[in-house]
Backbone:
């Protein structure tokens, strides 16, 4: 039913920019219209703010009803516009984009493209009525719920809540895209609270109880959206709208898992009893009865980690100014702090012989066959370790006494390429004859992990002894190692330098007189000056130990990436020879690259086969042969796992890619929605990780995510009024002036932690009458400026409310005293800290001539003692500490977790 207050067809909005065609829906928040943008004839949907309990329409405009004595509607309009402007910056495939926000007829509107399609109400019978539409399958429900969870995750991480999740606000577009619409009730988190209009009517059955009764249930937050989504899930799974705030046991028991668990948890009456975040709720699909907890994958873990960090960063960065907030959101949505992860598939390596087979051929000592074994999956016995071809090649090169480099990808087992030859040599020549091998790592973390790997093979009483000697060991442990040197010493390059130079370690140096093997792990880390230091260190090691015949080995995932295979081998050999020293350079033939082979046949399936595979919603096969022949697995391996430079050339590992980019390629190839392609590729990666190769016992798809997380950046702005103000998160000193004027200086911004009001962080140059940029944490004077130069750190209040006089009542109490007549006055020590209105030019100069380029601001010296936003006015008594505790920035350094 459409409100009788709806605008008539043909009515023009925003000075004739839009023409109303028809009112299509109305609710407690307002009216929705189909309209036309007259300039280009584009169909649009317009949302009008018209809360029926506060206002009604009269001829000529909109009048405030008598039941609004507190002026709530005016605040509703301001909040509606503010949230709509904020939403304009959103870019998500499952969220309706807002094209424009404007005021007219005494109220506010926002316009969206008319996406077509149908909402979910046609699938759901009204409350109390029997279901009329066929109940959706579990796969169909998942196709709807998964993108909605993504959409809510997106808005919640931006501290925005929808507060009207229901089938009528979920659109299935003609192309099948699921889209969340109608943000008329949306609210943005502000200082931990959400201001609600409790008179607005919400949709029964889908609205969380706290939305209509916050006094009893508490202030609404993201858990209200979880309730609405859980109620929508219940409706989709039963074909009927909920009739109660909490479903009955019979209603819940009729649901399949995991929907039963999700509906039960999400529709708890008490908000505190619901999952705290949308990710917490969605994760419950892995914990319900009959579900596989192990189905949770690394992508979910990544969402947890990054989501937690995003909430942490955004929790420090509420920004009142919409223009600045949108610019910051663009930065946060981009690749600035938490870019989309890169996914990398470790392709199957060409298998070599087992250690047992090499021992039987005399390549390895027979004892190696009993050391290098792995557990049989599902059993208690152990079997001989099956090597990759590149590991076997390394062992055979080492057997010939040559120096060599293993340049293979991450996760390729490079360490076995030198540990097996080292242990083989010690076993052949007999242990306990001093340090026979030194393995040098660039960092302790690698030494620690490799020590654990050695322990797995050699056990508690090893035939070949090994010890770690770094800065982590106690003095007692080091004395014990010096007294009884091991066969193999694990260390880092800094500690090896100390061993060679400190008299206390002279016993270790003497023990190295029989040194045969030196390993430099992660060669690519030794670049520039550090590379030269390590190269000289190797030469000093040769000199101090007196060893003339030293076999060297190096490992690296990335040294050379340009040119042919032979070109890369030659370049790696050249770099390794510089590092290893000695009389005999590394032969390019002894640079060992990985040899990969497709596990899924090396087939790139046809688009038709892929389209059918994507449309098939049945689980992916779990048997190796069936999985390896599945078109989706074949395409994924061919496009993420390996490449060939020539049709008959060797297979080589591909670099990491964004999953979204990979999904875009698949979607274009099969005319599929990208988000469906993303989900199916994720499913394929997870399934392939559980399928074991029958020959090697390794997963068919061993994959990893590479996630970069930055520290955040500072927001900079010119000292200009909107819309001329420029905002950037790039570190730039100045921008060109307008119309040939002086350059416009960019100043760092900080934000009140209570209200989000913006302040420019400045140095006040009192001698020259200007302001200079200053980082918030920096109270030291700029370079070339002395204590007597009249430069003072401070803040400029650059909000719309700047320029007003600050009354006594807003100043901190300890600034005020009474004169002899009992009248309040500012203490002499604080008089220079009272904010003063100033006129500022874009280059930072102070002016009394207010013109078009002049910005009205308020200046006060640091530390930050009070907020000048009239609706905030928070004061800080303890100003001895750093200002970072009182004002917020997007940068995350300076917080207690920046370690």
Residues:
């Amino acid at each position: 039913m459409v409100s009788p207050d709806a605008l008539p067809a043909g009515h023009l909005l925003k000075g004739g920019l839009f023409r109303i065609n028809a009112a299509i829906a109305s609710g407690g928040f307002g009216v929705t219209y189909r309209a036309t943008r007259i300039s280009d004839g584009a169909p649009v949907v317009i949302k009008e703010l018209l809360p029926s309990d506060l206002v009604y329409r009269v001829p000529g405009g909109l009048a405030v009803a008598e039941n609004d004595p507190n002026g709530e509607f005016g605040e509703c309009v301001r909040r509606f516009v503010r949230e709509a402007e904020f939403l304009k910056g959103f870019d998500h495939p499952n969220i309706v984009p807002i094209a424009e926000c404007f005021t007219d007829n005494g109220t506010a509107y926002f316009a969206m493209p008319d996406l077509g399609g149908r909402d979910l109400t046609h699938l759901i019978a009204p409350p109390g009525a029997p279901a009329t539409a066929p109940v959706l399958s579990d796969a169909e429900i998942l196709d709807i719920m998964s993108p909605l969870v993504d959409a809510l995750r997106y808005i919640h991480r931006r501290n925005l809540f929808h507060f009207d999740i229901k089938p009528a606000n979920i659109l299935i577009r003609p192309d099948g895209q699921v889209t969340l619409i109608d943000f008329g009730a949306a609210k943005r988190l502000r200082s931990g609270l959400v201001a609600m209009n409790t008179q607005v009517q919400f949709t029964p059955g889908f609205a969380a109880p706290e939305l209509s009764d916050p006094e009893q249930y508490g202030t609404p937050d993201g858990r209200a959206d979880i309730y609405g989504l859980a109620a929508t899930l219940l409706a989709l799974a039963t074909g009927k709208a909920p009739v109660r705030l909490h479903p009955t046991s019979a209603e819940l028991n009729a649901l399949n898992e995991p929907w039963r668990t999700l509906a039960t948890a999400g529709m708890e009456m008490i908000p505190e009893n619901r999952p705290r975040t949308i990710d917490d709720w969605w994760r419950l699909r892995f914990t319900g009865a009959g579900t596989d907890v192990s189905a949770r994958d690394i992508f979910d873990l990544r969402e947890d980690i990054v989501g937690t960090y995003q909430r942490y960063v955004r929790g420090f960065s509420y920004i009142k100014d919409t223009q600045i907030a949108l610019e910051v959101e663009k930065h946060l949505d981009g690749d600035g702090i938490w870019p989309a992860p890169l996914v990398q598939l470790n392709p199957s390596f060409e298998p070599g012989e087992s250690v047992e087979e090499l021992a039987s051929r005399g390549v390895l000592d027979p004892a190696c066959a009993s050391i290098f074994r792995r557990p049989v999956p599902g059993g208690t016995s152990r079997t001989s370790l099956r090597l990759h071809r590149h590991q076997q090649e390394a062992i055979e090169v080492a057997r010939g006494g040559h120096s060599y480099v293993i340049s293979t990808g991450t996760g390729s087992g490079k360490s076995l390429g030198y540990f097996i030859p080292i242990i083989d040599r010690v076993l052949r020549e007999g242990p306990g004859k001093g340090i026979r091998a030194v393995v040098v790592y660039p960092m302790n973390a690698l030494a620690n992990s490799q020590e654990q790997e050695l322990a797995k093979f050699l056990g508690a009483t090893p035939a070949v002894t090994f010890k770690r000697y770094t800065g982590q060991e106690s003095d007692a442990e080091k004395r014990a190692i010096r007294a009884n040197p091991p066969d193999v010493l694990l260390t880092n390059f800094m500690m090896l330098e100390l061993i060679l130079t400190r008299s206390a370690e002279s016993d270790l140096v003497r023990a190295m007189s029989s040194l045969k093997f030196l390993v430099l792990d992660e060669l690519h880390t030794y670049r520039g000056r550090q590379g030269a230091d390590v190269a000289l260190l190797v030469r000093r090691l040769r000199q101090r130990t007196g060893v003339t015949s030293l076999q060297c080995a190096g490992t690296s995932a990335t040294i050379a990436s340009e040119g042919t295979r032979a070109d890369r081998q030659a370049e790696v050999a050249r770099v390794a020879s510089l590092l290893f020293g000695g009389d005999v350079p590394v032969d390019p033939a002894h640079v060992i690259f990985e040899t990969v082979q497709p596990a899924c046949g090396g087939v790139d399936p046809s688009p038709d086969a892929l389209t059918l595979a994507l449309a098939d919603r049945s689980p992916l096969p779990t048997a190796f042969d069936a999985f390896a022949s599945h078109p989706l697995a074949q395409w994924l391996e061919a496009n993420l796992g390996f490449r060939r430079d020539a049709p008959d050339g060797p297979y080589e590992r591909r670099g990491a890619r964004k999953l979204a980019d990979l999904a875009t390629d698949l979607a274009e190839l099969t005319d599929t929605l990208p988000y469906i392609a993303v989900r199916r590729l994720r499913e394929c990666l997870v399934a392939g990780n559980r399928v074991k190769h029958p020959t090697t016992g390794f997963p068919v798809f061993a994959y990893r995510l590479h996630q970069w997380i930055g520290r955040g950046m500072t927001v900079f702005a010119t000292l200009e009024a909107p819309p001329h103000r420029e905002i950037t998160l790039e570190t730039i000193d100045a921008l060109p002036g307008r119309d040939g004027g002086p350059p416009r200086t960019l100043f760092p911004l900080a934000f009140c932690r209570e209200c989000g009001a913006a302040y420019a962080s400045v140095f006040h140059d009192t001698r020259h009458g200007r302001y200079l940029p200053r980082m918030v944490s920096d109270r030291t004077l700029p370079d070339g400026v002395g204590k007597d130069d009249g430069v003072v750190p401070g803040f400029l209040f650059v909000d719309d409310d700047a320029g007003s006089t600050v009354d006594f009542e807003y100043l901190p109490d300890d600034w005020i005293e009474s004169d002899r007549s009992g009248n309040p006055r500012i203490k002499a020590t604080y008089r220079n800290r009272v904010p003063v209105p100033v006129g500022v030019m874009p280059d930072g100069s102070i002016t009394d001539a207010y013109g078009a380029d002049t910005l009205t601001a308020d200046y006060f010296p640091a530390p930050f003692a009070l907020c000048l936003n009239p609706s905030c006015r928070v004061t800080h008594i303890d100003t001895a500490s750093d200002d970072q505790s009182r004002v917020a920035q997007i940068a995350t350094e300076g917080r207690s977790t920046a370690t």
Confidence is low (pLDDT under 50) at residues 191-199, 289-294, 894-899. The first helix runs from residue 72 to 87. The domain at 358-593 is CATH 3.40.50.300 (Rossmann fold).
